[in-house]
Amino acid sequence: MSLWSFLKGKLGMLVIHLFLLFFTGMLLSAMQLDGSTIFYILTLYTVALLAGLALEYLPKRSYYSRLHRHLDTLDQKYLLCELIGEPPFEEGKLWYDALKRSAKSMNDRISEYERASREYREYIETWVHEIKTPIASGKLLIENNPSALTASIGEEIDRIDQFVEQALYYSRSSNVEKDYLIKRASLKELVNSVIRRHAKALIAAHVSFDLQGLDCTVYTDVKWTDFMLGQILSNAVKYRREDCRISVTGEQGENGVSLKIRDNGTGIPAQDLSRVFEKGFTGQNGRSYAKSTGMGLYLCKKLCVKLGLGLSVCSEEGRFTEVELRFPKRELLE
Question: Where's the Histidine kinase domain (predicted)?
Answer without folding.
Answer: 126-331
